[in-house]
Amino acid sequence: MGFSLKSWRAERALKAELSQQEDSRHERELAARLRAQWEEGRAARRESLEIKEISADASGEQRPVKVPYGVDLAAAWSWRFLVIAAALGVVLYLLDLFMIVFLPLAIALFIAALCEPLVGRLTRVMPRKVAALLVVIFGLIFVGGLATFVGTQVSTGFSGLSKQVVAGIDQIRVWLRTGPLHITDKEFNQAIAKVQEMISESSTANIGQVTEVGTAVGHTVAGAFIILFASYFFMADGALIWSWLVRLFPKAGRLRADSSGKVAWRSLTQFVRATVLVAATDAIGIAIIAAILGLPLVGAIGVLVFLGAFVPMIGAFVSGTVAVLVALVAQGPVVALIMFGGVILVQQIEAHVLQPFLMGRFVSVHPLGVIIAITIGVLVAGIPGALVAVPLVASLNAVVVHLADTPLPPVEVDDSPPAQPNATGPALGEGDD
């Protein structure tokens, strides 16, 4: 009995020792495999990062060398950037080539965005096409009346302003003669004669550009007709035109294209309305200050400031300097300085009160983006390009924000079993009995 118990205990201890040795051996083998794999991976990484020299094989031909990862990544980004830049260059070239079509269409789109609420109210009592036609007709009457008013003011005030200019030139002549320069009337008349000669030579040299001027006038007339008809059709059939454009997209992207277009249209509508209110405020404020100071051409100054204010940040200020020049010519430097202070005051009210309140978050664009957009617009299409650039950037910014905040639609997965192919023999599961 004692012998059997001792044998059993010895056998049990031996088995435990053998099991411990086996576990230790497995652990050593696993550690060796892991160490070997790590060394193999490390060697592969070193080999991939190592810059090898170009060598020749037995035949004398050079073998290609593996490009380092950083160079490969830089090259990949570079050629993609060049492709994108080339595509943008083609787009800008086409815009410049067909500017006579694209620019009037953009202006007509802005007019439609501005007049859409009025057309919507008129459609409650009449068909939409008739409402759009009435809005276009009344718009033409308003623009024609405004042009007539400005022309009448300019024609009546120009004679008095020209007399003041002559008087100002005489004062300058007296100051040059009696002041520290001591310029005689003969020298002054010679300088005036040289300026007149330069202007005459410039006019003679520009006679050959009459054809270009005629072409520009023709393009302006054609653009005006395109704006007129496009504005009508955008207001009358805008929904149909947009539906046709959405159908050009693939079916999977039509919903996102439709929602993006609606967001862009809402942003454009708010931007144009806010810009009109800001421009009207600038024009009224500067015109009131000019009227208080007794300046001539108050109406013309107000219209000029209203049109210039459609270029954000700089348009109203640049057009307001015309009022300062009129004040300088009409009433001297003191009144001109007061007029300049009035222009600055109106600009500060616009920048810190009106634009944050009217524009809001939905159409907000960073000032750096506004400056870049205006610069690109001027380079592509001059002053009309500056008018169009910022609203387009605002709409594009709204679309980008909308797409970034909109999750992708879920992908539908079909969990049903696949259909069995038709075959001459029995289907799967048949004939098993």
Describe this structure in words.
The chain is built from 11 helices and no strands. The protein has helices at residues 2-49, 69-97, 99-122, 128-178, 185-205, 210-246, 254-292, 298-308, 315-331, 333-359, 367-405.
Beta-strand proportion:
under 5%
Question: Any low-confidence stretches, pLDDT <50, length ≥5?
Answer: 418-433
Query: What string, H for helix and E for strand, traces the elements in order?
Result: HHHHHHHHHHH
Span of the ends, CA to CA: 63 Å
Please report the total strand number as a whole number.
0
What would you say about this model in short?
This protein is mainly α and 433 residues long. Helix content is 79%, strand content 0%.
Could you outline the blueprint of secondary structure elements for this entry?
Layout: H1 2-49, H2 69-97, H3 99-122, H4 128-178, H5 185-205, H6 210-246, H7 254-292, H8 298-308, H9 315-331, H10 333-359, H11 367-405
Helix pairs in contact: 3-4, 3-6, 3-7, 3-11, 4-6, 4-8, 7-8, 7-9, 7-10, 7-11, 8-9, 9-10
